[in-house]
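The instructor's notes for this session suggest beginning with a concrete chain rather than abstract definitions. Hand out the sequence below and ask the class to guess, before any prediction is shown, which regions might be ordered.
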Amino acid sequence: MEKQTFDPWVWGKNTNSVQAVEVKNVTGTLYCSGQVALDANGIPSNDNMRSQLIQTIQNLEHLISESGYECKNIIRLNVYTTSTQESFTTCMDVYVPFIQKHGIQQATTLLEVKGLFAMLTVELEATVVK
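After discussion, reveal the predicted structure:
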């Protein structure tokens, strides 16, 4: 698999994503459903957004690994949150290390939504290639 990223604007270097990702010679594509803070029994968390993001990332990492893919090959990562303000003020110290740990260079869309399932506040939806 060959991956090339595009970020033609200087300001883009200060974000935790790139503006576009091109992949060639892909042998598989994994389209992940949105992952949220559910425990092993499928019980949704009612913790704060930061705690939910930690569980959501763990769930996404587990799903990708169990599917035979690697987080470093996430090419698209959409973030749905009930508060973009809260996600930026209380969660970047969780989100950024996740991106850096795996060396992810992905296209991202951050969307504030009116609500998510149960009392959930954040959801991650990924596309991964190999």
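Then share the key points. The longest helix spans residues 49-66. The radius of gyration is 15 Å.
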